[in-house]
């Protein structure tokens, strides 16, 4: 999430959702008193038309072939959808529904 408001959130448009790379889970033992990544994404979703956000943890990536997306790597990904609780997807999950 940007520190300053950009003139546009337009990107190259490869996928119709946002990818949040290097997603980090909240650490209850952390001394960090700022917002968590999850809180920032939920604030972003206060924008009515904000697209879904897929949080990719370290060591994960998306394999895209034709119209099929598969989560690859050793860790789950977290999907944020406006107005819903975040959902976890295990490695090898098919995420093609995100293209709809």
Task: Explain what you see.
The protein is mainly beta and 100 residues long. The chain is 8% helix and 27% strand. It has one helix and six strands; from the N terminus they run βαβββββ. The two termini are 24 Å apart.
Secondary structure: elements and pairs:
Layout (H helix, E strand, L loop, with lengths): L17 E4 L15 H8 L8 E4 L3 E6 L2 E6 L3 E4 L6 E3 L11
Parallel strand pairs: 1-2
Antiparallel strand pairs: 2-5, 3-4, 5-6
List keywords for this structure.
27% strand, 8% helix, globular, mainly beta, 100 residues, two-stranded antiparallel sheet, 4-stranded mixed sheet
Using only C-alpha atoms, the radius of gyration works out to 14 Å
Summarize the biggest pleated sheet: 4 strands, mixed
Mean of all residue-level pLDDT scores: 89
What structural category characterises the helix and strand content? mainly beta
Number of strands: 6
Order of helices and strands: EHEEEEE
Rough shape? globular
Total count of helical runs of at least 4 residues:
1
Distance between the termini: 24 Å
Q: Reading side by side through the largest sheet, how are the strands ordered?
A: 1-2-5-6
Q: What is the helical fraction, as a range of percent?
A: under 10%
Low-pLDDT runs: none
What is the strand content?
A: 25-35%
Short description, anyone?
This protein has 100 residues and is mainly β.
């Amino acid at each position: 999430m940007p520190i300053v408001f950009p003139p546009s959130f337009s990107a190259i448009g490869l996928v119709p959702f946002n990818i949040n790379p290097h997603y980090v889970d909240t650490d209850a033992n952390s001394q960090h008193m700022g917002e968590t990544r999850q809180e920032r994404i939920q604030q972003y979703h206060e924008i009515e038309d904000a697209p879904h956000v897929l949080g990719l943890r370290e060591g994960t990536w998306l394999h895209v072939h034709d119209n099929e997306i598969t989560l690859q790597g050793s860790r789950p990904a977290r999907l944020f959808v406006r107005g819903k609780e975040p959902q976890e997807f295990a490695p090898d999950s098919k995420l093609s529904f995100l293209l709809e």
